[in-house]
Each structure stands twice: as structure tokens, then as C-alpha cells.
Amino acid sequence: PAAETPSAPAPDPAPTPVSEPVTDTVPPSPADDAAPSAGTTPNSRPNGCGPEARLVCDEFEGTLGGWESRIDFRTGDVEISEAISTSGDQALASFGANTNAQGTSAVIKRFELPDNASGIYATFDLYVESGASDDYFVSPLLFTDTTGRRWRLNMGNSGGDQFRLNLWTARDGADDGIGATGTRNFETDRWHCVQVLIRADRANAFTLDVDGERNALVTGFSAEGYDTSYTLAVGLNSASPPKNVPTFFIDDIQVGKDPTSC
User: For the whole model, what pTM was predicted?
Assistant: First the structure.
């Protein structure tokens, strides 16, 4: 299928997701065989994962302790890799399998949103390898609440040396999907700082900033206040087809009720 656009949501895989614990044993990754060439100097999250209140915070150093796996179909692997990183020695690597079957391989974490939250703010570093020659679709970041509403950060191909990002939100079983296409493309083989904001209140808004500049804005979706329980899924969400998805890395992710700068 073609990359998701605001006109029609890309369907999720039909099977019910299966959650299973992720062990601390990290198997060898094909991504470790050849480290990507360094692009620009990586940006690191200020203060790292310190004692400040964070809903989710991980520098992906060592293990995936505290995360679970979500696998609808075995469409690839998501694991700790030493191939490249920002603030430390490792990052979270996602690489698709040689298959055309759409599916999900991701790590997930659940969190509760405080009553006094002004929004859900997610900040992380993203590195996408070059070389993708065919179209693909994948959601590196996916938020889901208990009402079935999903907020997707989607990624697709814009040529071998560029990729694009866009936003989409919809509720399961409801015809209320709405999205926005990103205003520009981004270079592969370098780190980018990605910031996503969800405001599911009277100011209903879903925004995407990349490297400090606004790239996409979604407003007008149907949501009545915040839900309290959320799931964050990182990796190969709804990869289609997995064999075309380039290897990408996520590092230094922070999700909180207050903004985090790049």
C-alpha cells in the first residue's frame, strides 16, 4: 500500500497484538555489522533521564528493561544496537525483514497521564539510513489511549537520500481520521531532533516539530478531554512492506507533561 496520507488512514494489521516480555538478552543485530557513517553532530536531551518527573524516559543503554514487545506479524526486529547513538554507546534500532507482509514489531510502554497535564510532549532523536529505493510506510512512534484513539508519527520514502514525516489520528471503529502531511523532507544518514505534542482538550491539536521547526499541525479531531491511560509503541508499527523500510535508530526519548527542548 501507498504511504499514508490525510485522506485515508492506513489500516492496522488485523490480528490482535500479543504482548510478551522483552528479555535483557540482546541478540546480535544486522545493524551492528556495519555502523552508519556519522552525519551531523547528534543532539542529546538536556539532563538525560534524571530524577525529573517523566512519564517515559530511556537512553537505550544496556537493556530494554521495562518495555514489552508487540508483535502482530514478525516483520522485523527492534532491539538495542551499538551501531550508532547520541548521548551514549547504544540506541534503539529497527530493521525490517525481507517480507511483503504488513505488520508490527515494536516495543511498548504504558503510562498514566497526570490530571494537571497541559499535553503529552514527546522528544527523541531519529536517524534514518539512506538507500531506500522503493515506497514504504511505517509509524516509528504510536500513542494509543483506552478509548481506541491513536496518534501516529508516520514515515515514508522521499528518495534514497531523503525521507518524510507526517501525522495521523483516528479512533478505532470511528470514521474520524484526520492528518497532516509534513511541509518538508529530511536528510538521511544524520540525526534529527523530533518533537511531538498531543493536546486532546479544548485546544485539540497534534503537532510535529523537527530540528526546532514546525513541520505538521493537525486540529479539529474529535476528542473530549484527556484519557488517563496511554500506550507508547516505538519501532516498526504497521510497516508496509517491511522489506522496503530502511534501518532507523531512535535514541534519548522523553515523554512528559511538560515540553523538553532539543
Answer: 0.80
Please state, as a whole number, how many other Cβ atoms lie within 10 Å of the Cβ of residue 69: 22
Cell reading at 25: 538478552
The type of residue at 14 is A
Cα-to-chain-centroid distance, residue 98: 21
Confidence of residue 202 (pLDDT cuts 50, 70, 90): low
In angstroms, how far is CA 170 from the centroid of its own chain? 16
Report residue 39 as a C-alpha cell: 552525519
Q: What is the DSSP code string of 192-229?
A: EEEEEEEE-STT-EEEEEETTEEEEEEE-----S--SE
Where do the H-state alpha helices sit in the chain? none
Among candidates 137, 130, 162, 126, which has minimal Cα distance to 11? Answer: 137
pLDDT digits (tens, 9 = 90+) for 168-190: 998 877 767 889 999 999 999 99
Burial of 208 (0-12, 13-18, 19+ CB in 10 A): buried
Q: Residue 224: what are its φ and ψ, rounded to 5°?
A: -110, 85
Name the E strands within 22-177. 56-58, 68-71, 76-81, 91-96, 103-112, 120-128, 137-145, 149-157, 162-171
CB 75, CB 239: distance < 8 Å: yes
